[in-house]
UniProtKB/TrEMBL annotation:
GO terms for cellular component: cytoplasm. GO terms for molecular function: phosphatase activity. It comes from Inmirania thermothiophila. Pfam families: His_Phos_1. This is Alpha-ribazole phosphatase/probable phosphoglycerate mutase. Gene3D superfamilies: Phosphoglycerate mutase-like.
Length: 198
């Protein structure tokens, strides 16, 4: 089964930490960037989306235009960053645990936010929902969710996940299957967004 993972594009409000507790709309030019990232991809049997509007509005419009079945999967929402939501990385540099978390995401939980363990368990459940149906499938979601899915399927340690760059409006394709012994396998087909030279 082929799975296209599409990260939402840049949101209004600029480059801030934007997790599950913040639901900013996409900026107008981003719709074109997300469409460009999907050029040559599809058709899909299903589109799965995070419930947050920066993913769901685009997914809804695409599903309506293409006649593709749309499913909203709550487990595909971004991590909840608690009191870190809406702040820039510069503002967060002095926050206890923030820099440590950049090296090891499980090292510190944002104040009033979601723990890494809870986020990981939730995204694993979301990934099972992706694999449970037929493909090909498009998943419209967030950078943190995509990193975690890539880590799961490629067997990467959690400490390595923040080294994966997932720019806004980029698409990553996974080819997934099950071998004769019943073990899952996946291969990665990277896609560089057009504005980065792809």
């Amino acid at each position: 089964m082929e799975v296209d993972l599409l990260r939402h594009g840049a949101c209004e409000g600029g480059p801030i930490l934007r997790g599950g507790g913040r639901d900013d709309p996409l900026s107008p030019e981003v719709w074109r960037q997300m469409e460009a990232a999907l050029r040559g991809a599809g058709p899909w049997r299903r589109i799965l989306t995070s419930p947050l509007r920066r993913c769901s509005e685009f997914a809804w419009r695409l599903a309506r235009r293409t006649g593709t079945r749309l499913e909203t999967v709550a487990e595909l929402a971004e991590m909840g960053f608690g009191r870190w939501e809406g702040r820039t990385t510069r503002e967060l540099a002095d926050e206890p645990g923030y820099l440590q978390r950049l090296v090891d995401p499980a090292a510190a939980t944002p104040p009033e936010g979601e723990s890494w363990e809870a986020f990981r368990a939730r995204v694993c459940a979301g990934w099972e929902a992706v694999l449970a149906g037929t493909g090909p499938v498009l998943v419209v979601t967030h950078g943190g969710v995509i990193r975690l899915i890539l880590g799961l399927v490629l067997g990467m340690p959690d400490e390595a996940l923040l080294r994966i760059e997932v720019p806004p409006a980029c698409r990553t394709r996974l080819r997934c299957g099950v071998d004769e012994a019943g073990r899952r396998w996946a291969s990665l087909i990277a896609h560089v967004p057009p504005e980065l030279g792809g």
